[in-house]
Amino acid sequence: MASGKEKKKDVVRLERESVIPILKPKLIIKLAYLIEHDSDRSEFLKLCKRVEYTIRAWYLLQFEDMMELYSLFDPVYGGPILEKQNLSLEEIDVLEQNFLTHFFKMMEKSNFNTVTNEEIEVAQSAQYLLHLPIKVNESKLDKNLLSTYFKDHPHENLPDFSDKYVIFRRGIGIDRTTDYFFMEKLDMIISRIWSWFLRKTMLDKIFFRKKTSKKQVKKTHEMDGEEPGDELYVERIRLENMDLSIGNLLGKNTIQEPTFDRMIVVYRRAETESKPDRGIYVKHFKNIPMADMELVLPEKKTPSLTPMDWVQFLISVVIGLVTLVSSLEMPKADIWVVVAILSALAGYCAKIYFSFQQNMETYKNLITKSMYDKQLDSGRGTLLHLCDDVIQQEVKEVIISYFILMEQGKATPTDLDLRCEELIQEEFGMRCNFDVHDAVQKLERLGIVQRDSIGRIYCLPLKTANEIIGPTTEEVVLKARQTT
């Protein structure tokens, strides 16, 4: 319960992505249902199949090249295959850069974005289930593979760690956890008391100087309950902001954190004299909370007490001992005051120790969970999944844009973009930043749209569009099966 003015919400503002969050079968069935005439509906369903078969054929050779290259750099099976090729080091360097070129193009086509420093700062500005500082053992990671690629293929907003590993992310979701959180609440109470003590003694200005990140301010906002506009806002609900009441402390609480629906990490381990390693690791995760993004980091160090934990521990011991000596030197030393000081000192030291042990256990459980529940696949399996994902996204873009032109007539690219987004919102209750330019390029490549004298786009009739694309190999095979 909040008295007086309602407490401000902690929300994260995120840009809408270009990925279309609708299953292709559901999309096609719904759009076909909206077509009035049965003959047009039949032609539309035929067009959808021909569009998919054609786009799949466009990418087939490109995907085969990428998969063949990856077979040389597969961490599990690639070593022996690479040795049999008898390639020079220079030739291997060229092949691995060719693989990365194919891979990054595929990630772009499937609407993945690289995680930036700004997003890392926003993610680390809060805690969710993971309460330990996780660091990467950079000595175990190769620094040449990715730095060479980015030198030849510059990218904007690359994070500081991009020479060692790259994290891609796509899609936004919400994760909620309900529990009693007794240890976390105890830790929060002691931390608030400790913070109050530091403020009163002015020690916080010496040991805890806050650094304000301008980039973080752009991403994290506090809102007074007003409805967000066209931006995508996701609220963070954390124990740190909880009111100290009997109900909150003794009952169950629900915390909430925005998640990245899909995350992919790419890296190579550092070579050693005894074991040269050309393997390129590609790991795929799902539903990773932003504040726990460290779960996907490669080659993590085992967590330990931080220097700040030790500083707080030593300061508390010194202050406790000084207070204890001062009490004993008083003419009438009160034994209960001495006991209270010693109890408080022992309690705080125990809090640091048991909090760390609890966090370590949580960390181990989260790592196990990320390996078995949240890691979708790795290596070749991830690449095959992404290849199909690219095709599905491309097909959905073409189908939606053609349907809009067919039902609503001529449109400029800007109008078509708006109409496609409105259709997705009205018919499916979802929002996305529709990639209209990519969709129009594919429509023109298929030859089923044209432009008028002032540049407006219009589609050819369904029957004509099907004739232009023509029967696909899949259709010929299916027809042959039916006649045998």
Automatic annotation (TrEMBL):
* InterPro entries documented for this protein: DUF3754
Q: Which UniProt keywords apply?
A: Membrane, Transmembrane, Transmembrane helix
Q: Does the keyword Transmembrane apply?
A: yes
Q: Which residues cross the membrane?
A: 310-329, 335-354
Protein name (Swiss-Prot/TrEMBL): Aminopeptidase
Say which species the protein is native to: Rhynchospora breviuscula
